[in-house]
């Protein structure tokens, strides 16, 4: 088992990267969430990996954190979702957004991933709802910092859900605009503007 790969980022290709380490170029399949956080070519990276052997290939799948890798492993444990489907989901939304969608039962958000239909999205929610740690979803990475939910934010999220927005969509919008000292009314107006 290859737990992680650490070395110089050599190439960035579509849906995968090549990391040079020990004189070898190791190709790793990665979701968009990893691509967005890569350093420039030539700098060092550390990618946590999942090694898969199938009848016709050996493949590595990579993630920025062990927690994100665990989310991938949970996804491929869902009936009907293989590594490509899991990467598709994790490219459509980052792992924290996926955790929020699972906990809030937002199958429409999960179904936005290419190749993932409504039934598969519902199966993800049913299979993983009890496996996702709700405490770990309290703060979501937003602009490089964790933004906790306060009572005003929760009130605005509930108001947006009442207006017909999906809980995960409402939460993401509120977290993106929330600022210290902003009251619920102003937060609601800003969130509606961003949606």
Features:
single chain; 195 residues; alpha+beta; two-stranded antiparallel ribbon; 43% helix; 23% strand; globular
Tell me the fraction of residues in β-strands, as a range.
15-25%
Silhouette: globular
Order of helices and strands: EEEHEEHHHHHEEHHH
What class would the helix/strand composition place it in?
A: alpha+beta
Q: How widely separated are the two ends?
A: 43 Å
Computed over alpha carbons, the radius of gyration is: 18 Å
Helix content: 40-55%
**Biggest sheet character:** 5 strands, antiparallel
- Rounded mean pLDDT is 85
- The total beta strand count reads 7
Question: Biggest sheet: strands side by side, in what order?
Answer: 3-2-1-4-5
Structure description:
Mean pLDDT is about 85; it is low at about 140-150. It contains nine helices and seven strands. Strands 3-2-1-4-5 form a five-stranded antiparallel beta sheet. It has a two-stranded antiparallel ribbon with strand order 6-7. It is globular. α7 (about 150-160) packs across α8 (about 165-175), α7 packs across α9 and α8 crosses α9. The longest helix is centred in the last third of the chain and has 12 residues, at about 150-160. The chain has about 200 residues and is of the alpha+beta class.
């Amino acid at each position: 088992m290859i737990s992680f790969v650490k070395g110089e980022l050599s190439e960035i290709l579509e849906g995968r990267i090549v990391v040079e380490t020990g004189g070898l170029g190791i190709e790793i399949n990665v979701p968009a969430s990893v691509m967005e956080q890569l350093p420039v070519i030539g700098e060092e990276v550390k990618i946590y990996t999942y090694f898969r052997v199938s009848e016709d290939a050996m493949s590595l799948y990579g993630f920025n954190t062990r927690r994100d890798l665990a989310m991938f492993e949970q996804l491929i444990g869902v009936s009907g979702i293989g590594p490509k489907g899991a990467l598709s989901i994790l490219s459509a939304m980052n792992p924290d957004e996926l955790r929020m969608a699972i906990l809030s039962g937002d199958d429409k958000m999960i179904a936005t991933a290419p190749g993932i239909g409504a039934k598969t999205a519902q199966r993800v929610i049913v299979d993983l709802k009890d496996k996702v740690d709700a405490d770990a979803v309290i703060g979501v990475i937003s602009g490089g910092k964790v933004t906790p939910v306060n009572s005003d934010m929760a009130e605005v999220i509930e108001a947006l859900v009442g207006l017909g927005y999906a809980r995960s969509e409402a939460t993401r919008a509120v977290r993106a605009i929330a600022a210290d000292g902003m009251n619920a009314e102003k937060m609601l107006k800003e969130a509606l503007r961003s949606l």
